[in-house]
Write a structure and sequence with these properties.
The structure is a single chain. Strand 5, helix 9 and strand 6 form a beta-alpha-beta unit. Helices cover 27% and strands 20% of the residues. The strands form 6 sheets. Strands 3-2-1-4-5-6 form a 6-stranded parallel sheet, with helices on both faces. The chain has 14 helices and 18 strands. With 479 residues, it is α/β, with parallel strands linked by helices. Helix 2 packs parallel to helix 3 and helix 6 packs across helix 7. The chain is globular and about 65 Å long.
């Protein structure tokens, strides 16, 4: 009897220890969108994708702004048209996941900046509905970071900070600015460099200048030789997004320059188990970025009209991954690593491209399909904490035995080390098979404390195949 009671207490204790691992509350990221919608169809494309994740991202504002492509026009009515298309499919989306905001709520978030280019719209008397809204949201009693996802020019934010600096105490201005996280799709007006120079503590993520070909975000739509690019093809878009997917799919315009060039500005805000928005250096769907002062001599003029200048401080910007894809293997172990190695900044984004395109396609299916007919992502569950500590040379095991799938689909595991995300930069290979629920590793010999990131990718066999992740950060201590 005593032994049984002790055994019961041990089991209860183990269950309580496991609860934080399995029942974590995901905090939604707050975001305000600045968009030069109508300058390029890709803003509309990106809005459509954004609204499909509006139950997982806390949208706080949708501001029509200018850019180097739209000097003196703003089009809030075009944002409203996309919201109305979303509103007509919302009831079906709610069959698949809860929390999709009402059409009226989103319409109330539509604002506009001044129809002026760049710094011509910054200064005394340049306040706008959009800049005032940014300040209002910043002043809310909410300590979560506020992301400014910038798809065009950033002068509406610049005006907000100009006013904050002029009207607030230094202490209050510092507190408000510390909440901001800015991701801009390159520099599309001259207020970006002004912001970075005048607010040196402002969290700012950008591939500086106007040379789009050198920007990480172009990994979303760049044709990559040596891989399958089907999921950014026009035929794939027509079949999986535009046609037979309700009013939201019908509103998705054809590609003119590059498909969804603005989407990377919010991809890393989606809670998928991989993304850690506060850690751009860890990598995720939106790419991987490091904090440093870029070498201005390597910055080239592009084809736009934005003047560029040397950076005066460190910014979050392009980083390089060395990546060898895993490919299907017909006989024996179901996957094998390719022999080709890709190495550049765009790799940090396109390495996840098939995953986030499939996820987009599945959510487009949710616009019209019943729950039973559509696919839903698997739910990886670790048997241990996401942060563990081991000693140099020690063997350790990572396990996700309790992983499930809501549709009862079969699913596949894939474990791999992500060297660039940690401080230990050499690859740590799996001891044995990487495609089972339990993976074995040996901590390398280290002379100082290091961190290593291990990614679990779980992919179901539904259509389209959907992936979710778990990231395990291992601290390796020297003996």
């Amino acid at each position: 009897m005593i032994i049984r009671r002790i055994y019961s207490l041990i089991c209860l204790s183990m269950m309580m220890m496991a609860l934080p691992v399995c029942a974590q509350t995901i905090e939604k990221q707050r975001v305000i969108i600045l968009t030069d919608i109508e300058a390029d169809p890709d803003d509309t494309q990106s809005l459509i994708r954004l609204f499909l994740y509006s139950n997982q991202i806390d949208i706080k504002g949708l501001i029509a702004s200018t850019s180097c492509w739209y000097y003196n026009q703003v089009h809030p009515e075009s944002i409203e048209e996309v919201i109305k298309a979303y509103g007509s499919v919302r009831s079906n989306l709610l069959k698949h996941e809860k929390g999709y905001p009402e059409e009226e709520h989103l319409l109330g978030l539509v604002k506009q900046g001044l129809p002026k280019y760049g710094m011509k719209g910054v200064g005394d008397g340049m306040d706008s509905e959009g800049s005032e809204w940014i300040i209002k949201v910043l002043e809310e009693n909410d300590e979560r970071p506020l992301w400014i996802s910038t798809w065009g020019g950033v002068n509406t934010l610049a005006q907000a900070l100009y006013k904050i600096e002029k009207t607030k105490s230094k202490k209050e201005a510092k507190r408000l600015i510390a909440k901001l996280r800015v991701y801009t799709i390159s520099d599309q007006d001259d207020s970006g460099i002004w912001l970075r120079n005048n607010f040196p503590d402002l969290f700012y993520l950008v591939s500086p200048g106007d040379d789009y070909g050198s920007a990480t975000w172009t990994g979303i739509n760049t044709y990559i030789h040596g891989i399958d690019n089907t999921k950014i093809s026009n035929s794939w878009i027509a079949q999986n997004i535009q046609q037979n997917h309700g009013t939201l799919g019908a509103a998705y315009p054809d590609v003119a320059w590059g498909v969804e060039g603005d989407t990377p500005a919010f991809l890393s805000l989606i809670p998928n188990g991989l993304n850690e928005s506060e850690h751009p250096e860890w990598g995720g769907w939106g790419g991987r970025y490091e904090l440093y002062k870029p070498d201005f001599s390597k910055t080239k003029d592009g084809s736009s009209i934005v003047s560029i200048a040397p950076e005066t401080r460190a910014i979050w910007t392009n980083a390089i991954d060395n990546y060898s894809p895993y490919v299907p293997n017909e006989y024996g172990r179901s996957v094998k690593q390719d022999t080709v190695v890709f190495s550049n900044d765009k790799v940090t984004l396109w390495r996840w491209r098939d995953d986030f395109q499939n996820d987009f396609a599945a959510r487009m299916d949710w616009c019209t399909m019943s729950y039973e007919d559509a696919n839903h992502p698997p739910v990886p569950v670790l048997s241990h904490p996401e942060y563990i500590t081991v000693k140099s040379g020690e063997d350790f095991t990572l396990d996700a035995f309790d992983t499930t799938d809501p549709d009862k689909d079969n699913f596949s595991f894939l474990w791999f080390n992500y060297p660039e995300a940690g401080t230990y930069k050499k690859k740590i290979k799996v001891n044995g098979a990487e495609n089972v629920h339990m993976a074995y590793f040996t901590a390398p010999k280290v002379d100082k404390e290091e961190t290593a990131h291990f990614i679990l990718k779980v992919t179901d066999k539904g259509k389209p195949a959907l992936s979710r992740y778990k990231r395990v950060v291992v601290t390796i201590k020297p003996n």
